[in-house]
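Consider the following assembly input.
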Amino acid sequence: MRLPRLTLSCCTLALLAGCKPVDDRKEITVEREIGKLAPKAELGLSLRERLGLKPVGAKPDGPPFTWEMPEGWTEAPGSAMRVANFTFGPEGKGECYFTVLPGGGGGLLLNLNRWRKQFGLEEVDQAAAEALPERRFLFGSGKAVDLEGAFQAMGASEAQPGYRLLGVIMPEVQLGDMQVAFFVKMTGPADAVAAQKDNFEAFCDSLRVGK
Amino acid sequence: MSRTNKQKSIPQKAFDFLSSYGLAVVLLALLLALTFFGTFAQVEHGLYDASNMYFESFIVVDDFKGIPLALPGVYLVSIVLFVNLLCGAIIRARKSWRRPGMIIAHGGILFILFSGFVAFHFTREGSMLLYKGDRADEIYNLTDWSIEVAKHGADGETLKTYVIEPDDLKPLYKKGARRVFHSAEIPFELELYGAVRNILNFKLEATGLVQEGAKANAGASLSGGFVEGFALAAQRPNKQAERNQPGTYIKVRRDGEELAHTLLLGGNGFTPRPLTVEVGEETWSVNLTRRRFSLPFGLELEKFEKEDHPGTQRAREYSSDVVRVDDGVPTDRYHISMNRPMRYGGFTVYQASWGPQNAAPGDPLYTTLAVAHNPADQWPKWATYIVAIGMAIHFFQKLVAYLRRAGRANRKQEDTP
Amino acid sequence: MTRRARRHLIALLPLALLVPPSESRAQGEGATGTGYTPLESYERWPAEAVEAFRSIPVQEEGRLKPIETVARYKLLRMNGAKRLKLEVGGEELKLSASEWLMDCLFRPEVARRLPVFKVNNPDVMVNIGLEPHASPRQRYAYDEINAPGVMRRLSELTAGYSAILGDEDREDEGKALRRDPVKAGVMALKSQINEFDWIVNALNFARDGLAVDLGEASGKFEKTGTGRTPMSVFLREFDAVLAEARGEGGEEFIKKLGVAFSLLERDTATAGVKDKTSITSLAMFPPVERGDEEWVKPGYLIERLSLRANELSQAEKAEFSAWAMPKIVRLESLAAAAAAGDDAAFSEEMAALNGEIVAAAKARGEYKTVSLELFWHRAGFFHWALGLYFIAFVLLAFTWLAPSSAFARIASTGVWLMTSLATLALVVGITVRCILLSRPPIATLYETILFITATAVILCMLIERVDRKRVALAVAVVLGLGGMFMAMRFEIKEGRDTLKVLEAVLRSNFWLATHVICINIGYMAALVAGAIGHVYIFARLFGVKNRDFLRSVTRMVYGVTCFGLLFALVGTVLGGVWANDSWGRFWGWDPKENGALMICLGGLILLHARMGGYIRDLGISMCAVLIGIITIFSWWHVNQLETGLHSYGFTSGIMFWILLSYGIEGAVLALGGLVFLREKLAATAPSQEPRAKGGAPPVDGGGEPSHT
């Protein structure tokens, strides 16, 4: 039969063509034009910064975030919920943190009233919560909160008067397959907070999802 | 044919061989077998690897459910088939004007094979992902990774970018492979080793990035030693090749002096985080990134719209409204939807996808546009017309002949009592 | 969804958090459990009420359809048939799907005792701790499965399976699990039970209202004395209820309301809110806004007036309430009439409900297809086609018994007639489907079966017109019968409405009408050629010597293959052109594309091998059978590979049939090989009959000689 012989010769041809030596030195010859709108590279990063990935053994985290730390703030250790955590002001009394709560956080009203309670303020109703000013935040918008009063932090025994809170609430965000809520909360002595208001706004504006 | 064989010259014999039906049958049968095995290989290895192995190769060596296979690859078979077609169906049959349809149809098939060849070698393709208001003029290939070596100016702006192509990186994924890359225009050379194709598990956790002293991966088989507290361990490649994230060990040397010895991991490219190399006054960077191409124009997403079938989450239609940006100046508007790409300057921009796939109603969505530059873009369409015309002519001739014969046969039957 | 509902509850009444979350639905009210007994009597719904019910339009899976369609497929999924057979008091009853759905909605206590669930594999029942019935034909009632421990066992098993299926790192385990008949059966049963649970609880709100007497909880409200409050009353008083809860002594009031509220949450969910995912198929109210396309389910009305009332301003709420309340009241009256057994009132209310919805649908210009669809159900075109093909097959068998008798000639005319009528029914059925969906006939796997069957029969009949050998006619009948049977089995297997709306990429009538049709004609012709090839192989096997007959069969095989090749080739390339327009690549080696390519290659091999003189008539037929096998591969097998872009039709449990058909076709090929060997041996032995110049097969192929 002619067919098998033909098949065989085709296969042999293929085998010959398939062998190619691997060169262990290779010249780089291709040059590429960079797009005018291409993102700028971040230079001078250490290995850890470059990896951006949590190695195995570390807690798997949600979507990573980026932000710019304002001048004069001090980075404080984060926690499970506090993605970014800073202190500022005299004696580091002021703190500002960005939290991501899984499960939607219970909605705008619940959180607003939780904060108001911490400041010894009365609870408000949904209409009042809805009436809060909007601010651009992450990829959408959040409610801007500004409270003053005697602040009793979680677990603290006494309220401290003359405190102020600046915050942003973005509840019930669908992120991947889970629902989350985002908060930025800055608390501290009223004058210290007032002094950092611009920094607070800048920090909120700089927050981004993704590396 | 065999009668005259002995008197034929060798070129004549070669032509006879190349134009023979036998060769055509063997090649077609090989294509059939390759397509069959390649389809099953996809189940096992995913589309990308199976394509590389079966459809884009000169030779296939695989283990098909325990049966060892060694066949010529589709690429090779197609080339030989092209020659076979050219010799057999066009050159030899050109005088047979009784069958014009077949010559036309075969010409069309030749054209298809040729456009496949052109498309395979000259297509540049990639994707861009845009949220509303975003602008971009670069696309990245989802599956092919490259290393970019860039020189930067004082403000960190990129002056020049050299590319190590995906094909030069692929051999490095083999165990023990090592390669040095150099160029007269780059003041250092790069030695890559211990490269792994994928460091992520199927849940997309970086299980292939092992931290020194961490218990979790005590048993992992590393592809190199610990460098700055980290090592790489190859993970099973994902069948969806675009989910693989590669990594490699890298040594940067200048005149025998080691400037850096570290790891490079595939980055997402939205904000490149390359390895920075300072050489004297110059700042260079080395980045493992998806193969990127820049476009001669930019696109800005004005609006992305997704419409579901009522009461369901099944997309009925999605489309992007984009503005072309030339030198930073917005110019023409385009509406891109499924089956309706934008064509401009030899580039075709398709509505590929959107995300995040599980976004809640009201969440901002991004659009994924696929961009391809394929010189053979519309050729298959013309080829189809040619083939269809040719075959229609031919089969029409055949049908007429068949009907005539059948009619005759029936008459004969009716005549005989 | 429950989570979402609860969230709004929290927003309104923070103290409601104190209430324990509701028990799982299965163990809710219906958990009588232990003593299941079959129904002793069954009272049918009044015919007018059924008639009014079945034509109510609902929106499901993106399409407006009569509720009859919903009922049919719901029942088909659980029961394996679109009608419910049961034996009550020694009498056999056949309930229509609509009647059954009415039981589910208005008489759940009856529905739970109806033998609905079909479980083919007895080990499924053993696994969840139930004694299986003697035959899978004997269905299980919900209350039978809802025995102590059984439901829990079912949930535990399926929870374990889901964990595996959801884990991408355990892909192989997941695949194995889905292919394990018992485990797959357990999962199927669980999802059927779930669906049943949803539908029997769908109108709880209308039947039972709120599970607390507001008047007993607070003096501010009127007592009903039944321990319950009708939903309409509760919704009307909702603002007052809120005020009471927030007022002095509100905590006490909330405590009394507590359980009722968590039940309200459940009943709202089962009645269906606007969440795009719920499996409640009762989107029966056209939306308020004209521009809005999404019809709404009853739960949405309740939700907007209670749990999510805070999203509306007072004016909006009043407006919405004026629109929604009559609908709730209507459903309540229906439920009340059903509970009282008042047939006249029930029929009247149902007719009124139907009238209101149909009028609204007509005003929106959406009703036309609904009545056409009802007609389509009633006409049962495909059942007719199946039956007629069957009759044709029986007649055909008669013609084989005595091929040349006068009786055979009459029977043969009968075959013609029956086949024509069957095909007519099939074509009309397909056409109606096209009108209902306003698109070309093929976009789903199911539709390919219908189309391929119809065109195959038509092609065979055309061939028979030309070449009256009764070969093509026989093939037509066999393919028609086989195709319709396959369509029926596939519909049962899939258990989904076969009239489907399409994904964005498929919504191109141009490509559906060109690429898809071409490819399917290619499939069809390959199958027909293969089928005729069988005739040839068997004819040779049984020593048929009639050269004229053999030659004309070969011509048919060859001609049909060429015809198919033309379409397959053009269709495949058109697919590439389409892909180039939607995905930016002409060819992507996607499995379904590969399948089409393989058919083309098979056809090309046949042609070229014949031209080269490598095969003659037997070879052509064997090649055609081989191409038939390839067609089965690319038509069905490829979809089972669970990979690729065209994976629109994964259906579990059909792999067996695919392998079986490979086996049969392989055997036919082997027989062909046997014929070849036999004749080869006969040729080498001293030959008795004179031969033409040396070729192995005794008959020369039709068509022209090879041209070398």
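Chain B touches chain C through 78 residues (CB under 8 Å). Ask yourself how this observation constrains the way the partners meet.
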